[in-house]
Amino acid sequence: MSDKGNLVQQFEDAFQKSISILTEDDDIMGRNHQTTANAIDERITHFTDLARQLETYFIQKRFLIYNYRPEMVLKEDTAELKSELVRKDELIRKHYDKLQQWQGMLADVQGVQPSGNGSVRPQGGVGVPGGSGAGGPMGP
Questions:
Q1: With contact defined as beta carbons under 8 Å apart, do 129 and 139 qualify?
Q2: pLDDT computed for residue 70 by the predictor
Q3: Contact at 8 Å (CB) between 128 and 122?
Q4: Which sign, positive or negative, has the C-alpha torsion 88, 89, 94, 96?
Q5: What rounded mean pLDDT belongs to the chain?
Q6: How far apart are CA 120 and CA 45, in angstroms?
Q7: Per DSSP, which regions of the chain are E strands?
Q8: What distance in Å separates the CA atoms of residue 61 and residue 10, rounded to the nearest whole number?
Q9: Rounded distance, CA 137 to CA 105, Å?
Q10: Which H or E run contains 53?
Q11: For the purposes of burial, counting CB atoms within 10 Å of the CB of 11, is it exposed (0-12), middle (13-18) or buried (19 or more)?
């Protein structure tokens, strides 16, 4: 466990070092471009190596859980699927709200009145099939 803590600390330090070389004050005259580029490459390489080691550690732990406690994995998968369903239901609800809004806007533009059940009904005006314009809202 302390190995993981040590690895996390090394990872954080490598990240700080990678960022520090990019954010430190520029001394244009005193810096060699090639030296700076090599230092950046070295620090980024070290950072990505530590990231891979940390990823490997967590994958190994996940594999152990999968082998020795498969019900934990099933519970986690079930929870993820439930949250995904909730997210998708919310997205569908938003789409239906937008659809109703657009249908209302379309009805306003086309001169049709929405009926009580959510669908739209033509007013019988010019350009509407079967309507002559003289029949009123209910048609001829």
A1: no
A2: 86
A3: yes
A4: positive
A5: 80
A6: 62
A7: 113-114, 120-121
A8: 19
A9: 18
A10: helix 33-68
A11: middle
Query: Which residues contact residue 126 at a Cβ distance below 8 angstroms, ignoring those fewer than 6 apart?
Result: 132, 133
126 backbone dihedrals φ, ψ, rounded to 5°? -65, 135
In angstroms, what CA-CA distances link 15 with 8, 18, 25, 39, 40?
Answer: 11, 5, 18, 13, 11
The three-state DSSP-derived secondary structure of 62-111 is HHHHHHHCHHHHHHHHHHHHHHHHHHHHHHHHHHHHHHHHHHHHHHHHHC
pTM value is 0.49
> Residue 7: CA atoms inside 13 Å, Cβ hemisphere, count?
15
Distance CA 128, CA 140 (A): 12
pLDDT tens, position by position, 78-131: 999 999 999 999 999 999 999 999 999 999 998 866 555 555 444 444 444 444
Tokens 């379309």 correspond to: 106
The structure tokens listed for 42 are 């070295």
